[in-house]
Amino acid sequence: MNELPPLNALRAFEAAARLGSVSKAGAELFVTHGAVSRQIRALEEQLGVVLFVREGRGLALTEAGLRLRDASAEAFERLRSICADLKRGANDAPFVLGCSGSLLARWFIPRLDRLNRELPDLRLSLSTSEGELDPRRPGLNATLLFAEPAAPPDMQVHVLAPECIGPVVSPRYAHASTFHNASPDALLGEPLLHTVSRPQAWPAWAERHGLSASSLSFGAGFEHLYYLLEAAVAGLGVAIAPKPLVAGDLTAGRLIAPWGFVETEAVLALWVPGRLADQRAQRLAQWLKTALAEE
């Protein structure tokens, strides 16, 4: 089977034949006059024919050149048309965002109306999961998740904000009043609510505050962070959570954060598969970054 000439050589020839000038072809393709000439010479050598001849101070197409001009012009125009249709179709389709159910319920949904008003062309569709979020899962345009920023080469990672976590408790909790102005070791002996999805959260926080992880007392465990925080609001114990997920509860007074929040090594980021050159992801990342910074 005969192989096609290199695409760059065909593009250089098509542009020069259409514009009637090697210099103009170079300007259109953002390369030098010499680069276009070299591509055309390589194409002539591969095909074994002459495509251009000198005519006065310009160039004229040979019969072979005319045939290749017509065929390449039709092929490139067809490709341009199809690519434009595909791009329009991609932008008309919903933008599917993956995120955890906890993040969706506690941060995203309260801000969804604002997002829809400010990014009306996004046509956001949300896909939730409380298990291990896979940014490469088919059907997702992007994934919003907390993770350490070790970006694989096949992913674009838009860092939005550092992760900040801290203990939160309901003012109705029996010992809540004793936490005011108390040192972190006041938590020793308290039933600490925790999740099976992130068992290292409490030990990491304790070590950050000079406490031994082995001295912590754990109460009820929950499969999902959403249920953990509902238990904390109900006054069942002290929970630990990322700040954005409890911002509404802190503002409303349903929860308090006696020791504030500390940064971890993780970040909240928008992960986008590298194969998806969708500008909507960039606009969403900027919107999310702004919304988080305001809080």
From TrEMBL:
<keyword id="KW-0238">DNA-binding</keyword>
<dbReference type="Pfam" id="PF00126">
    <property type="entry name" value="HTH_1"/>
</dbReference>
<comment type="similarity">
    <text>Belongs to the LysR transcriptional regulatory family.</text>
</comment>
<dbReference type="InterPro" id="IPR036390">
    <property type="entry name" value="WH_DNA-bd_sf"/>
</dbReference>
<dbReference type="InterPro" id="IPR058163">
    <property type="entry name" value="LysR-type_TF_proteobact-type"/>
</dbReference>
<feature type="domain" description="HTH lysR-type">
    <location>
        <begin position="5"/>
        <end position="62"/>
    </location>
</feature>
<keyword id="KW-0805">Transcription regulation</keyword>
<dbReference type="InterPro" id="IPR005119">
    <property type="entry name" value="LysR_subst-bd"/>
</dbReference>
<protein>
    <submittedName>
        <fullName>LysR family transcriptional regulator</fullName>
    </submittedName>
</protein>
<dbReference type="Pfam" id="PF03466">
    <property type="entry name" value="LysR_substrate"/>
</dbReference>
<dbReference type="InterPro" id="IPR000847">
    <property type="entry name" value="LysR_HTH_N"/>
</dbReference>
<dbReference type="InterPro" id="IPR036388">
    <property type="entry name" value="WH-like_DNA-bd_sf"/>
</dbReference>
<keyword id="KW-0804">Transcription</keyword>
